[in-house]
Amino acid sequence: MNEILRPFDIDFDLTTGLSRLKKASKRYLSNMADMFYDTEKAGDILKNEDPLIYEFYEMGIPETVGDIAFGTSIVYPGKIGNEYFMTKGHFHTVLETAEVYFCIKGKGYMLMETPEGQWDAQEFAPGKAVYVPKRWAHRSINVSPTEPLITFFAFRADAGHDYGTIETKGFRKLIVEKDGRPVVIDNPRWS
Ligand SMILES: O=P(O)(O)OC[C@H]1O[C@](O)(CO)[C@@H](O)[C@@H]1O
Ligand SMILES: [Fe+2]
User: Fold this and answer.
1) Could you say which architecture CATH assigns to the domain 25-186?
2) Integer angstrom CA distances of residue 117 from 21, 36, 82, 88, 141
3) Helices (H), the chain
4) Strand 25-28 and strand 52-56: pairing?
5) Is 53 or 5 the better-scoring residue by pLDDT?
6) CB of 17 closer than 6 angstroms to any ligand 1 atom
7) CA-to-CA distance for 144 and 180, rounded, in angstroms?
8) So where are the chain's domains?
9) Mutate to test the pocket of ligand 1, among 90, 92, 104 (most ligand atoms within 8 A of CB)
10) CB of 73 sitting under 6 A from ligand 1
């Protein structure tokens, strides 16, 4: 039988994005070193430190039809070479499911692409919501040199995460710093 949750609430701090009640999942550089295009640079950094790239909340919502998974995602400021800190990014396993993100703090982009090769980058700024339509892979990127990028996300709880495609092929586009500004470039490693 499907689990049915009782109503509940949870705190998310508007400055840190973190909850006092729940533990966040953390992704360090060592968990995603191959996802940055300058893998050599990532390797050099890992010789001395293993920076925390982002954290996010998995609320334990049952992955069943009719439920909504939600939480905050916090991408820290920093770069690997000239590529900004970012999330791994994923398609939904149930490709025909959308997701919405609301930016609470920071400055960045949601980079998106479809299996057919369309791509888009929508800006994150406090108070802006970004709609990720069904079929679009999505990755949050923090372009601020100092502030974390904090977003609140919600998606169909049975959507699932398909990381495989992005782990092996990457995104078609990258957002990197050039002359002190974020620019979209072709991913030299995309195949
Ligand atoms: O799942 P990724 O690509 O590591 O990115 C993490 C973010 O995306 C989500 O998986 C939701 O799409 C969240 O759990 C989190 O905000
Ligand atoms: Fe998602």
Assistant:
1) Sandwich (2.60)
2) 40, 20, 24, 18, 20
3) 39-48, 164-169
4) antiparallel
5) 53
6) no
7) 11
8) 25-186
9) 90
10) yes
H helix and E strand count, the chain: 2, 15
> Distance of CA 93 to CAs 22, 99, 109, 162, Å?
26, 13, 23, 5
* pLDDT given at position 65: 93
3-state DSSP assignment of residue 172: coil
For ligand 1, is residue 89 a contact (CB within 6 Å)? yes
Whole-number Cα distances in Å, 140 to 19, 61, 86: 20, 22, 6
pLDDT, tens digit, 9 for 90 and up, residues 138-171: 999 999 999 999 999 999 999 999 999 999 999 9
State which ligand 1 atom lies nearest to the alpha carbon of 90: 3
pLDDT for residue 2: 61
Asked whether the beta carbons of 86 and 142 are under 8 A apart, the reply is yes
Does the predicted interface ipTM exceed a cut of 0.90? Answer: yes
pLDDT for 4 equals 80
